[in-house]
Specification:
alpha+beta, HIT family, subunit A, five-stranded antiparallel sheet, binds adenosine monophosphate, binds zinc ion
């Protein structure tokens, strides 16, 4: 499968990992948009949030639990952070393997003003 994140999971493309278990990995975004910019992804290849099935409910919950844990480890739980999931073309999705962006380490600009490009 020609999926860049599956290759990161396999280890054929390098990444700076901060977390890994049987179901999930998290690593640094290659083009950070904030001082902390990590991607949290399931090892299961799910292209977009639209493709999440009912049986993935616990996996999705675990993705958020890992995000919460990493935010704490990165020291930004109290200062604050943002979790982002882009879906399809209008949502700005570039990599079609489900991922949550964890952004923080600075005061982030408001996300819901001038949101249309
Ligand atoms: P999205 O627009 O939500 O699909 O975001 C995809 C993200 O993946 C972007 O922020 C990219 O900078 C990031 N990205 C793409 N390739 C890599 C890679 N090889 N390692 C780490 N992050 C990547
Ligand atoms: Zn994939």
């Amino acid at each position: 499968m020609d999926c860049i994140f599956c290759k990161i999971i396999e280890g054929t493309i390098p990444s700076k990992k901060v977390f890994e278990n049987d179901r999930i990995i998290a690593f640094h975004d290659i083009q950070p948009a904030a001082p902390v910019h990590l991607l949290i992804i399931p090892k299961k290849h799910i292209p977009t949030m639209n493709d999440v099935a009912d049986e993935d409910a616990s996996l999705l919950a675990e993705l958020f639990a890992v995000a919460r844990q990493i935010a704490k480890e990165q020291g930004i739980a109290e200062s604050g952070y943002r979790l982002v999931n882009n879906v399809n073309a209008d949502g700005g999705q570039i990599v079609y393997h489900l991922h949550i962006h964890l952004l923080g380490g600075t005061k982030l600009s408001p996300v819901l003003t001038n949101i249309q490009s």
